[in-house]
Amino acid sequence: MIANACHIDEIEWREAGDGKRGPMRWKEVFNERRGDSKEFVFGYAELDAGKAVPLHTHEQAETIFITAGSARVRLGKRVVDLAASSAAYFPAGVPHGIEALGHEPLSYICTYATEKLGQNIEIKAADEAAASRFDILNDTEHRWAVLEEYEPWVPIEPSKGRKGMMVRRLFGFDRGHWPEMMGGTCHLSAGAHYTLHYHDQAEIYYGLSGRGTVYVGDREVDVYPGVAIYAGSRVVHGADALGTEPFVMYWLYGTESTGEVLNWTPVEDIYTEVRGQ
Q: d(Cα 58, Cα 239) in Å, to the nearest integer?
């Protein structure tokens, strides 16, 4: 059973330098070598205002979640503008690109699904002719871009009322019919405890706001904005929200091999609202 955690400030920036990803700089936070994550290559990327990642392809599916700034995102021949707290899903082999809008840098989480195709992510430049062959509507059935606030909060443990956890599902089997990853955001109100549990899907958490303790395997991790956690398949994990503000995280399941059914299995009393009571 594998679990790892770090803050993105612990990772050095890398520059593309090959022209295929333009002036993007990124930090590769988890992969098979760093963090023992075979299901994901998980990282954090930045683009200066007015800069762009040109059209390109790769065989692994990719997701992004914007943490700051705004972007013009292209998939095939379609283009959408996204603000902070938005997500996009790039299916395998489809040309896509990203442009930083406005006057501020664009920052975003980027994740590749690598369980089946491996972590040798070969970036290939794409042109307008190649992009124009793909026309994927951004609709309910094949959604590939969404603003977080458009999705409702759904309680995970409704018996806990306001002291439980709520999630927003942004992409996955039921949000675009994407088979490789499922993800969104989660919200724990002040004092809430998310029940210790496990499931077959490996999972990543990333702190967005507030502060909390995430229990993962035999570790207790202090999580705040910029802290990322990888929990392998069937690793026991849960969380407590600390302080007086809500604790909000980005979450991501790897579903390439396990599928969409979550065998969510608690290992403590699900009605316990505060750890230790």
A: 35
